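Deliverable D4.2, example record:
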Amino acid sequence: MKMIPEGQYIKHYRYGMGVVTESDDRQTSIDFDLHGLKRFVTNLMVVELSNLVPPQRIRAKHGDKVYARLASKNGSGKSASEKTPSSKRQVSPSAGER
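Output generated by the structure prediction step:
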């Protein structure tokens, strides 16, 4: 297969529909709708060219997700079990206490 122009909408047998983001003699990068960015050896890849119009791409910034996750995870630096007062914890009786 030869180089594919950037912006071309294609269909891959495994990853589905995607947009070519880069293509040269050696490798081609395709941003798939459901599987993200993948790179292929241009001569070995098998794709079908599509005459459909690619959907609008709106993606969240990676950094926002990471920082939000870290903030909610670390909170005050204590784990959930350390935050719970011991008087509210339920303790099941062991076999010897029954």
